[in-house]
Every structure is written in C-alpha cells, then in structure tokens.
Amino acid sequence: MDNMTKTGNINIDSDAAGSEKAAYYGRYISNTHRLGRIMTAIVLVLLLAAPFAVGVYLNAMPNIPAAAKAFLGVGVVYLVSGIVEYLIYVPMLGAGGSYLAFITGNLINMKIPCAINARDIVGVKSGTPENEIIATLSIATSSLVTILVLAFGVLLMIPLQPVLQSPALQPAFENVVPALFGAMACKYYRQNKLVALIVLTFMILVFSFVPSLIGSTSMMVIPSGGLAIALSYLAFRKKAKAAAAGEENK
Amino acid sequence: MEILAKLNGAFMYLICGAIILLVAVICVIFAVRAYRAGKAMGIDTGKMKRVITASATFSILPGIGILLGVIALSGSLGTPWPWLRLSVIGALHYETQVAEAAAEAVGGGGLSASTMTGEGFTTIALLMCFCIIWGMVLMIFNGKSYVTRLMSGGRSARKPDADAGANAAPAANKKSTAGFGDIAMTAMFIGLVSAYIASYVGTIVSSEGVFTFKGSWLSLAVSVVAALAMAAFLYIKNKTKAEWVDSFSVAGSMLIAMASAILLGGLA
To answer: Would residue A61 count as lying in a domain?
Structure first.
C-alpha cells in the first residue's frame, strides 16, 4: 500500500490482494454503467419532455416542422460534433466521468480541462482505474460547483444584474474562453513543442486563408486534433523503433 | 412582454429546478461512489481531496461565465429555461446559436422577447434540448462496450460483457494502454487548444478580409496574458516546490487574463 501512495498508481494485479481489488473494481465499473445508463435515460426523457410540459403550461406546443427545419440547418453540425466529442472525450473521462459530463455538458470549456487538470495534479495515466476514480470525482465536483454557482446566481440575479452587466466588466466575461485556452496552451505546449508548433502554424494558415471557418472553430478541432495525434503517433513509432533497435544492439 | 412574465413564472422555476436538482443528486451519488471506491482501492485520500479542491476552484470562474450566458439569454427566454439549459448538457458556445436558428425557423426573425410567442418558445426549447443529446444517447447505447474496449486495449472487444468489468482493471495497467493512449490525449488537447488560438490569430489576419490585418486582437492578447500568467505559476511551483499552486494555477491565470481584458478592452 505504501508503494501505491508513493507512486500514485495502484498496481492492483501485483499481489494476492490485487485480484480482490480487481474484482472490486470490476463490480464498481459494472455498477457505474448500470447507474449511469439509468440516470442518463431518466434525464434525457425529462429534458425532452420539458418543452412539451411547458407547451401545456403556455397552451402552445412546439412547431415540429419548424424544429426539424432548424435541426437540418444547425442541428446536424451538433450531431457530428456530438459523435466526435463522444469518441474523443470518453477515453479521457472514463465511465463515471463520461456519464456525468454528457449529462451536465460544458465539456470543452470546463469539464475536459478540469478533469485533465485533476489528472495532472495527481499524476495518473489515461485508461487506469485511478484515472476512472479521479475523473469521476473531478467532473462530479465541477458539475456541482457549476450548479451551485448558477443556482446562487439565478437567486441573486436581480441585485447582481447591474454589476455583472456593467459595460466595464463585459470584456472580462466575453473572454473566459480565450483566457482558458491561453492558460492550457502554456501547460500543454511545453509537453510537445514541435507538434504544437506545427499544428498551430497549420491552423493559423487555414483560418487566415479561409476566414469563414473561424465561425466553426469547434468543428476545426477535428482536423487540428487529428493532425496532432498523427504527428504524435509518428514520433511515438520512431521512438519505439529506436528503442527496439537499442535493445537488439545490447 | 406578457410571455416573458409567464416564462419567469413559478411553474417554469418548478419544472427547471426539479430537473437541475435531480442532476445535482446524480453528481453527489457518483462523487460518493467514486470516493468510496478510491479508498477501497488504496488511492491516497489526500490526493482525492486535492482533486476535489482543485476541481471546485477550477470551476468557479467558468461557472460565473456560464451564469453570464444565463443572464444573456434571460432577456428573450426568461431566466428559468437558460438556467436549465446551461446546467444540463448545456454548452455556453452552442445555446445562443441554436436558439437563434430555431427562432428564425419559426418566423420570429431572431431571438427577441418582443417577437416571442408561446409556440416560438416551445420550439426553441425543444431544439435547444434535442440538438445536443447525442453524447447521452451514445453513452446509453454504446458507453459500456466503448469504455470496456478502451480499458482493455481493444482485446476484450469480442468478449462477453459479463467478464469485461473484471478484466478491465488488470488490463488497464498494461504498459501499452498507458503508452500511446496518454500521448494521444495530450496531442488531442494540443489540437483543441491550437484550433482556438489559431482562430484568434485568424481573426486578426483575415476576419475583415483576407490578409487585411484589421480584426480584433483582444482574444489573442487575453490568451497570451493567460499563458504568461500560467508560466509564472509553473515557475513559482517549480522554484518553491509548492504543490498547492497547481490547484489554483489555471483559475488564477484565467482571472488575471480576464482582468487584463478589461484594461485591454479600452485599447482594442
């Protein structure tokens, strides 16, 4: 156990007690999926039923043809982006973190950086049981804090409104996302400077030559991320080959 | 404006508040289960407490930003509905765009309380909910098999679900999983950050016409200030070996950068 604390990584298959812990973790994950699916389904049904409940209250049901038309215009983008987000972020968040993150939203601007920040603080690796626990704790805490901030904010909205909407403060709140990405850039660019330089240069050229894409930045994460992963994979393979050649020489 | 009074009525607070309360309860259940499981598996409780503290402090500033999103939408949709949307699957970036598209589709000409009707509101509300449910849908129908496949490095993909959970833990510790998987995650994040930072540069260079260099530089300047602040935090952490700095470095950098936006906003 001391070793686990020191390294920050649980080595649950290293001894006799390991198999017990592995079984415990197996049960935990299995129950997480069961609970996650049930809770997600309940929230999903409630969320989709809410506009119709409001329709009864207002005596005005949603205009389905108009909603379908708008969906074809803007919703399809979010369908693709939703699938991409699912494929990309689930590996970062694990089971519990993913169920919570997809229920509470605000992934890119809050949940993902928050989970990665937590993972870095503790020093765990993706795909490990420790990452599963840490990501779940991080996303749950982040979601609760957001819910509390919003609840207090809504309660205080009337007296707070003049302060929050004062023109002097607007540049600050309009720049939450650039502030977040600037801070994260400093943290992550240091880990792979060459990949960061190539990807950033490529994306600057793309946005400069095709400025209409600036309005679809969230979609442009796909080629940008794909390029970063491809470059990292090439570097990873080169390193692995060099290591293998070194072993052979010994 | 009568519609706005209804949209701010007790019924709306009740229906939205109830769903948000349920989501809060779900978060508490998941947090308690994870904490207990972490303790049972031998994860240092001090580390878990640090994660909770860091995540809480990290979320306050973006939470205030999201609250501003609620305020921004409350003028046309009332307060309770934006409160619900930004608490449940909401995304600050998406909501306004989807609401605007729905308002245009029902013929309102855009998001405005003066042209809002009951039908317009319920259509907007439905579209806001429907457009971003895909992550939830995929988690319900495919989440278990996807996570299992990831944790076992793809090898258990063809195994029955029954033994997947038990196999997942030992497999997850294999070197191969932690090898490129971790590098790929860092790379993905570099890609994500690069797309946004590059869009700020692209805004300066071409937003007013290709290579005219007349666009706003405020977003890029704020990012640079945040990066410099983060570098300072990292320097302090490395020099003083104060691990607690990590818990506040991101939120602190953001706060400094956002404050700089107030000063720089006057110059931009």
So the answer is: yes
Nearest to B27 among A91, A132, A144 (CB): A144
In eight-state DSSP terms, residue A109 is: I
Residue type, A50: A
Encode pLDDT of B211-240 as tens digits: 999 999 999 999 999 999 999 999 998 898
Asked if the structure places residue A225 within a domain, the reply is no
* Tokens 């943290």 found at: A187
Q: Which residues of A touch B264 (CB under 8 A)?
A: 171
Supply A189's token pair.
């660019």
Whether B27 and A62 lie within 8 Å, measured CB to CB: no
Residue A184 lies in a domain: no
Tell me how far apart the alpha carbons of residues B12 and B75 are, in angstroms, rounded to a whole number. Answer: 15
The ipTM, to two decimals, is: 0.71
Which chain B residues are closer than 8 Å to A225 by Cβ? 187-188, 191-192, 195
Cα separation, B198 vs B221, in Å, equals 12
- Encode B179-197: b = buried (16+ Cβ within 10 Å), e = exposed: ebbbbbbbbbbbbbbbbbb
- Domain tally, chain A: 1
Instruction: Look at B250 and A183 and tell me if their CB atoms are within 8 Å.
Output: yes
Q: CB neighbours of A189 closer than 8 A, spacing ≥ 6?
A: A196, B190, B193
Q: Which of B52, B182, B262 sits opposite A137 (nearest CB)?
A: B52
* Interchain CB distance below 8 Å, B165 and A231: no
Range of the domain at A2: 1-155
Q: What is the pLDDT of residues B103-136, one digit of tens each?
A: 777 776 566 677 788 998 999 999 889 988 999 9
Contact yes or no for A157 and B71 at CB 8 A: yes
The H or E element containing residue A104 is: helix A76-104
Taking the C-alpha atoms of residue A91 and residue B181, their distance in angstroms, rounded to an integer, is 8
Paired tokens of B21: 């309360």
Q: For residue A210, what are the CA distances in angstroms to A136, A216, A225, B208, B209?
A: 39, 11, 18, 12, 10
Task: Answer yes or no: is A208 within a domain.
Answer: no
